Amino acid sequence: MTSLIYPPKPRPGDRVAVVSPSAGLPALFPHVYELGLRRLREEYGLEPVEYPTTRIMGADPRDRARDLTAAFADPTITAVLATVGGDDLITVTPHLDDAVLRANPKPYFGYSDNTNLLNHLHRLGIVSYHGGSVLVHLGRPGKLHPLTADSLRAALFTAGWYDLTPAPKWGDEPNDWNDPGCLADEPVMFPSEGWRWQGPATVVEGRIWGGNLEVLHWLLAADRVGAAASLAGSVFLLETSEELPPAIEVYRILRNLGERGLLATFPAALVGRAKAWEFARRLTPTEKQAYAEQQRAAITRAFAEYAPHAVLVFDVDLGHTDPQLIVPYGGEVRIDAINERISVRY
């Protein structure tokens, strides 16, 4: 496996970059964005620094790459946070100055389309952090979710081991950012049944690789995923987006990863709780349950065919649902299937 380093951590009072390497949604939802910035200052004691494309929709990929490179190059910036995801960060990473990123490693926080950049940093040997959107999580209506807030604080400021906690309640029906009053009340939440464990009762340790499954398929098509041998022994992180990919497509993507020789090298997988509702697809509770069950079945099928030895942990709160736990991408994880515990080293 590639040798990876943990970048130095920020401290309260530090300046941190806030960037939009994917979609410039702060331009469309400034009320949500400003709440996220305020919480960065008030809850975490960090001073956000914006870049020229942070509030621009459709900025040229070269300009977004220039902002990212500048954020890493600036010695007064100690961490870099993405505002949100999107769908075209794959066009940005080729324009990054990799020599600058390697020479100035910093903690980077993002998820969803940011899988492109997390994977890019991984290939440069830099540990980054899956999660922590300025809009979605810091700008959460009502208040910060306590599990998200605690996980993000630990990932930002500490370097030790951290036990992930199953959420007692979860949500996937966000408030409508188009509504000016959307920030007044917390999103609707539902009772959780906790994590679901499959596979052998054993303890697995490794380094995390993966991300949003749809984006991983784009990266495979663009030939930007390392050889199977370079990722052997990784703990596979996978989660799906608000586009609600059908179960058969989830299976096919994993089948293709299996045919590439990747799945067989993974001793375990952390599977994010499936988001099963979106404004354009308002599934009923019964339909949501069926969607999640079908997705779990598709993932189980693929691993049974290509990696029957793997420990699988389903419904971990690390993807497109609320709350969101932060995990170190390329960082260490310990999965204890005997005592049903997951610990990560930040």
UniProtKB/TrEMBL annotation:
| Species whose genome carries this gene | Micromonospora radicis
Q: Where are the transmembrane segments?
A: none
Q: Does the keyword Protease apply?
A: yes
Per the similarity annotation, which family is this? Belongs to the peptidase S66 family.
The UniProt record lists the LD-carboxypeptidase N-terminal domain at: 16-131
Stated name of the protein: LD-carboxypeptidase
SUPFAM superfamilies documented for this protein: Class I glutamine amidotransferase-like (SSF52317), LD-carboxypeptidase A C-terminal domain-like (SSF141986)
Q: Which CDD domains match?
A: Peptidase_S66_mccF_like (cd07062)
Q: Which InterPro entries match?
A: Carboxypeptidase_A_C_sf (IPR027461), Class_I_gatase-like (IPR029062), LdcA_N (IPR027478), Peptidase_S66_N (IPR040449), Peptidase_S66C (IPR040921), S66_fam (IPR003507)
The segment(s) forming the LD-carboxypeptidase C-terminal domain are 205-335
Keywords noted in UniProt: Carboxypeptidase, Hydrolase, Protease
Determine the domain of life of the protein's source: Bacteria
Gene Ontology molecular functions: carboxypeptidase activity
